[in-house]
Amino acid sequence: MKLQIERLKFAYDGGGLVLRDIHLEALPGEVTVIIGPNASGKSTLLKCVAGLLKPAGTIRLDGKKTSEFKKDKIAQWVGYLPQENSFRAVLTVFEAILLGRVQSLSWRVGKEDLASALKVIEELGIEKLASRFLHELSGGQKQMVSMAQALVRQSRVILLDEPLTSLDLRYELEILDLLRKITVQRRITTVIALHDLNQAARYADKVVILKDGDVCAFGKPETVLTSQTIEAVYGVICKVTTDNGVLQITSLNSIRSKSGNRSEGNNRKMDTTVGD
Questions:
Q1: Rounded to an integer, what distance in angstroms lies between the CA atom of residue 65 and that of residue 216?
Q2: pTM for this prediction
Q3: CA–CA dist 64, 61 (Å, integer)
Q4: Distance CA 5, CA 25 (A)
Q5: Confidence check: pLDDT of 21 > 50
Q6: What is the enclosing helix (H) or strand (E) of 18?
Q7: Could you state, in order of their start, the residue ranges of all structural domains in the chain?
Q8: What percentage of the chain reaches a pLDDT higher than 70?
Q9: Which residues contact 177 (CB under 8 A, 6 or more apart)?
């Protein structure tokens, strides 16, 4: 399902514009990664697409305006994983994942619902967690359950806001590898907000760079993630190289530094921590 955003604007009550005239397109079978500094509008943009906020402008799914759809239809087609999830219900992991199919569940749990939940649990490798209660899980394990809830819906568009929070490096790579695999196999339109530029370079088909609510750049990682663009957006001097066809971004110094000398430890892979 193709996602198109045209002239999108949004402001919270009493505040200035958070999103300013956003134009972009995300295609089925591709991973589109949104990056940008703090308060650039990443989370707000995902909430607008998910139907949680009402922006000005147009959002289309396969050419049809989402403003013409009922909320339950958008919820059926668009799966949204927020940056933070609060699990307060007394449920097991399996029960919580099964609830991810709430759009298709009736009074009885069907064989298809059970099969879908089991398949996602196996794909994520969390079989050992299935019978545990949510309050017993670590932050990273809860994030895995949230990911499973998003995937079990079999949505045609998946929006993920910082899905790697609380995950160690192993799980980060496993999640991103799995997302790419599922995106291609199921022809899903996947949109992810990330803070790690190297992860964006490695896994994105297209990269969107936001700054102050505007799209500064949009395109393939090799054309968007340049040292000039990163310096302009993040205020960081960096070196961009290619290793076996994969971009590697190494930060060298902040442009605020008055000295041109780099202290030991400043030369490192770029991992810019950002928020919204």
A1: 25
A2: 0.85
A3: 5
A4: 6
A5: yes
A6: strand 17-26
A7: 3-225, 226-270
A8: 88
A9: none
- Residue 71, CA distances (Å) to 65, 99, 103, 115, 236 in order: 12, 18, 11, 26, 41
Task: Residues 3-225: name the CATH superfamily.
Answer: P-loop containing nucleotide triphosphate hydrolases (3.40.50.300)
| Residue 173 three-state SS | helix
pLDDT (0 to 100) of residue 148: 87
Please list, in sequence order, all residues whose beta carbon lies within 8 angstroms of the beta carbon of residue 4, skipping any fewer than 6 positions away. 24, 25, 58, 59, 60, 63
Q: What is the 3-state secondary structure (H, E, C) of 219-253?
A: ECHHHHCCHHHHHHHHCEEEEEEEECCEEEEEEEE
Cα dihedral 170→173→174→180 (10° resolution): 180
CA distance 235 to 229: 9
Identity at 84, one-letter amino acid code: E
Element (H, E) at 35: strand 30-35
CB within 8 A of 90, min separation 6: which ones?
A: 133, 134, 135
Distance separating the N- and C-terminal Cα atoms of the chain: 25
Instruction: Tell me the two tokens of residue 58.
Output: 């147009």
What is the share, in percent, of the chain residues with pLDDT greater than 90?
A: 50
How many Å apart are CA 87 and CA 146, to the nearest integer? 9
Task: With residue 190 as reference, give the H or E element that holds it.
Answer: strand 189-193
More confident residue, 207 or 252: 207
Q: Half-sphere exposure of residue 15, counting CA atoms within 13 Å on the CB side?
A: 8
Question: Whole-angstrom Cα distance, residue 109 to residue 111?
Answer: 7
